[in-house]
Amino acid sequence: MAVTLPRPTSGSTRGDLRARPVRTRRARWTARLVLVVISLAFLAPLYWMVASALKSDTELSAFPPTLWPHELHWENFSAAVQSMPFFTFFRNTVVVTVLSVVFAVASNFVVAYGFSCLQWPGRDKVFYVVIATLFIPFPITLIPMFDLYAKLGWINTWAPLVVPSMFASAFYVFLIRQFLLQFPRDVLDAASIDGANAWRTLWTVVFPQARPALATVAIFAAVGSWNDFMGPLLYLQDQDVQTLSIGIQAYTMTASTEDFQYNQLMAVSFLVILPLVVLFFLFQRYFIRGATVGSFK
Fold first, then answer.
1. pLDDT tens track for 48-96
2. Contact 207, 57 (CB under 8 A)
């Protein structure tokens, strides 16, 4: 015996169609609200840093703490800069970071190109060995690398901070390789037929299309080099070659408890992270495209 199901009326169908956009709009606004709340949670430390840097000593020690200073003390920034050789530390950090970024982008791009766009026996097996180096703990290599740099006479120089970036990193190679695997093989074959060798294809054909991934690597390398604390702590001794991370730490250790100014510390800390914030906003579009491994047209 056949059973006939009742058909929905035209009125109920129209009601569902009207309800669908409402539910979709509500879900979008809910997602945006959640993202705004999460963003505010991440921005709260930055806000508190700026607010503390602009407070006076009296207001900084007040309880309960004020959310925003009653009077802005911009002189805390100048006092913080003058309390240490800030511009020397800043110059050293900029030089080390720029060199590290340039060498990291160039070396990792060349290695990733060999693992993605060139065909040679055992390519994938060698790539697996490279990825396996990610699991080597850092403390295992700490003493051998320090002994090597000491024998080379590189202690108290920038060489231990810059030279390692000349050699590819497994994570950066993996990131760029995954991006380059989407490169059309027909384009590479056409370049080879036109007489372009591997190096010319690398820089004239592949490089312009790989800029999003390279920008992502550049941001990661810049943040890692700018915030590096262990390297300068181990290899840099003289104040003339120290970077911001170890310079600020030395400042906090030499200052006595009575004379220590937390508002100045917050001020100089904000000046340290400000270049990274500007860097991210300038390259945000490339960073998102590279991190999501965007597609080629």
1. 888 888 888 788 777 888 888 888 888 888 888 888 888 999 999 999 9
2. no
Question: Residues 73, 59: contact at Cβ < 8 Å?
Answer: no
Four-point Cα dihedral 193, 197, 199, 203, nearest 10: -30
Give the closest residue to 97 by CA, choosing from 216, 245, 241, 222. Answer: 222
Which tens digits make up the pLDDT trace of 188-199?
888 888 887 888
The identity of residue 78, as a single letter, is S
